[in-house]
Design a protein that fits this description.
Layout (H helix, E strand, L loop, with lengths): L4 E4 L3 E8 L11 E8 L1 H11 L6 E7 L16 E7 L7 E6 L5 E7 L1 H5 L2 H5 L8 E5 L4 H10 L3 E5 L18 E5 H8 L7 H10 L5 E5 L2 E7 L2 E5 L15 H14 L4 H17 L3
Parallel strand pairs: 1-4, 1-8, 2-6, 4-5, 8-9, 9-10, 10-11
Antiparallel strand pairs: 2-3, 6-7, 11-12, 12-13
Length: about 290
């Protein structure tokens, strides 16, 4: 049986360096690097399956013209149907992140040319007729996002990805059933200062057309806006431990929340019972 939850998004290498000391700009900083398989789409797919709310998911991912690197094709994807779509003239994606000694992001750099170049038709070819929920990663280009949203009039979930790319979702607001984003992405979409009160950011997202959304804000409460109004869900105190960093924690929250909603849970319950525990696991290095 083909999966009925389909994620369109990035799968690539993550090179993450954790600083040994306080970051010094314009200087060589000692770090401990680790190499892993990442990408927003891939992270969300893995968290969805690990949540226990679904048994399988399809990840449709644009990759470089040479296809997936052989050593990452099957890493951590035992229960994920990975459909790689090679994009001519592009190379394999990469993400480099520098984290401080507490595991928080200092700066990140994404090379996602394949996602930004792929045509929506090539991705649609890998979407099964059984799909009833689709997830759209804003690494995809505006035209590809538009094409997918238009061609798939089913339950559509969008992920903000980054402040530099979240604005791509604005023209699609009236056709997105659920938006998941963080404070910086919300500020970018609403043209408000990043220190704007979270409730005001949520109100601005709703005014922009994203009536149902989840707005994360680090250790501050998660704002959920749905048909019942706006609610704040407290985030348990979490300290990064061992190899844990914040890298991928937001994706984990998104993936587990999406799986729970897809399985029939109410959005607020999905965030509190599935999304937040998944994010906590990343921060703790599990």
């Amino acid at each position: 049986m083909e999966p009925d939850l389909v994620i369109f998004g990035a799968l690539h290498r993550d090179l993450v360096g954790v600083l040994e000391h306080e970051h010094v700009s314009a200087a060589s900083n000692p770090v401990e690097f680790s190499l892993s398989t990442g990408g927003v789409g891939a992270n969300v797919a893995r968290a969805a399956v690990r949540s226990g709310h679904i048994s399988s998911v399809r990840l449709v991912t644009p990759v470089g013209e040479k296809g997936l690197d052989g050593d990452i094709a099957n890493v951590g994807f035992a229960d994920i149907d990975v459909c790689a779509v090679p994009v001519p003239g592009t190379r394999a994606g990469r993400y480099v992140a520098i984290m401080d000694s507490e595991g928080q992001l200092v700066s990140g750099y994404a090379d996602t040319a394949a996602c930004n170049t792929v045509e929506h038709g090539a991705l649609l070819n890998e979407c099964p007729a059984s799909a009833r929920t689709v997830v759209l990663d804003a690494n995809l280009s505006p035209s590809t996002l538009e094409g997918l949203v238009t061609a798939l009039p089913i339950y559509r979930i969008a992920l903000g990805v980054s402040p530099a790319k979240a604005h791509r979702l604005l023209p699609l607001a009236d056709r997105i059933e659920l938006l998941i984003c963080n404070r910086r992405e919300a500020a970018a979409m609403t043209s408000l200062p990043t220190d704007t009160d979270a409730r005001a950011l949520s109100d601005a997202l709703a005014a922009a057309g994203f009536e149902t959304h989840v707005l994360t804000d680090g250790q501050a409460p998660v704002i959920v806006n749905d048909a019942d109004g706006t609610a704040s869900i407290d985030v348990p105190a979490i300290t990064t431990t061992g190899r844990g960093t914040a890298n991928g924690a937001g994706d984990a929250l998104s993936g587990a929340t999406i799986a729970a909603v897809h399985a029939g849970l109410a959005l607020r319950e999905a965030v509190s019972s599935a999304g937040l525990p998944a994010a906590s696991g990343i921060l703790r290095g599990s």
